[in-house]
Design goal:
- The complex is a heterodimer.
- Chain A is α+β, with helices and mostly antiparallel strands.
- In chain A, 35% of the residues lie in helices and 19% in strands.
- A four-stranded mixed sheet of chain A has the order 1-4-5-6. Chain A has a two-stranded antiparallel sheet with strand order 2-3.
- In chain A, a hairpin with a 4-residue loop joins strand 4 and strand 5.
- In chain B, 25% of the residues lie in helices and 27% in strands.
- Chain B has five helices and nine strands; from the N terminus they run αβαβαβββαββββα.
- In chain B, 34% of the residues are buried.
- Classes of the chains: A alpha+beta, B alpha/beta.
- Chains A and B meet through helix 1, helix 3 and helix 5 of A and helix 4 and helix 5 of B.
């Protein structure tokens, strides 16, 4: 089951709440932002850029980052994930894009939750 | 060649499709291929094919007829996550199997696997009943969206990360009756 209680977590987006509920429903253990990965350091060794993936599934050893950004704006996030994979090659991470989240919500009939992330870009262009 | 009607025969349903990804003939050929492999691998083992209602119905019906060895079939129904069911907190079995699977060779048949959340839950439940074997056959697969790593013995087609319908796959319970699989027009999703 879940390894954290929803009540003690401050999610940064309503879709993260829904995603956590879905994991709970299917009895998948999860953690919310359990680890921050330094990505960049200054000359004195201080961390100047870091990345905390949204979810971690211990049973799958998998980090999941959710994003509701439109495809055109996703470049920075992609760069961070690419950098993370270069620096930490043993880490498994999956990006759930806007269209992935939209399809997930639509699949479960959650029209209200899908409404803010509806768009035509991904369905038309496959991005 | 299948006896499927031409796509145009599906009128307004077909009008909502922007692109056909797999024609009825392509699907039929793949189902025959899967049926042949299953018939060879399960010869002499009288497998029980198990599916979850409702999306799997067209695939199960065709796959059964492509299998040439003695075989049985049974169905489960579960309440998927939804605005209503989330209040209950966890998955509820709405229809259990009519057949005991203990000691049986079970082949779990899926129309599509994407996140793997539902399948993982069902496989856990089936394993607890101690079948002699439990394998998975899916016609469609969306590997990039997989959250739960699951072994798939028989696999048909990989699908792109877009909303597809037809041959059992639905949007708001529609389009399941299309004999092909296609991309839903973006404007349908925004209606």
């Amino acid at each position: 089951m879940k390894s954290d209680s929803d009540e003690n977590i401050t999610f940064s987006h309503p879709l993260e709440v829904e995603f956590a509920r879905i994991l709970n429903y299917y009895q998948i253990e999860w953690q919310y932002e359990p680890r921050t990965f330094p990505l960049q350091w200054d000359e004195r060794g201080a961390v100047t850029q870091a990345f905390s993936p949204d979810f971690y599934l211990p049973g799958q050893d998998l980090y999941i980052e959710l994003t509701t950004l439109r495809p055109k704006l996703i470049r920075i996030k992609n760069r961070k994930i690419q950098r993370l994979q270069e620096l930490y090659p043993d880490i498994n991470i999956k990006l759930f894009k806007r269209s992935d989240l939209r399809d997930l919500m639509l699949k479960f009939g959650l029209d209200e939750e899908a409404a803010p992330i509806r768009g035509t870009d991904a369905q038309d262009n496959g991005r | 060649m299948t006896t499927a009607l031409p796509p145009q025969a599906y009128g307004s349903l077909y009008a909502d499709i922007s692109e056909i990804l797999f024609t009825a003939d392509e699907i039929a050929a793949k189902v025959q291929e899967l049926g042949r492999a299953i018939s060879e691998d399960y010869a002499g083992r009288n497998p029980l094919l198990v599916g979850v209602l409702k999306g799997v119905v067209p695939f199960m019906a065709d796959l059964l007829r492509a299998i040439t060895i003695p075989v049985q079939v049974d169905y489960l129904a579960i309440a998927s996550y939804s605005a209503e069911s989330r209040q209950r907190g966890t998955v509820r079995l709405e229809k259990d199997l009519d057949t005991s699977i203990t000691g049986r060779h079970v082949l779990f048949v899926e129309d599509m696997i994407d996140t793997g959340l539902t399948l993982n839950y069902i496989l856990r439940s089936l394993r607890a009943r101690e079948p002699a074997g439990l394998e998975v056959c899916t016609l469609f697969n969306k590997p990039r969206r997989r959250l739960i790593n699951l072994p798939i013995r028989y696999k048909g087609f990989d699908l792109p990360d877009r909303f597809v319908v037809g041959y059992g796959l639905d949007y708001r319970e529609q389009y399941r009756n299309l004999p092909f699989v296609g991309l839903l027009r973006a404007e349908v999703l925004t209606r």
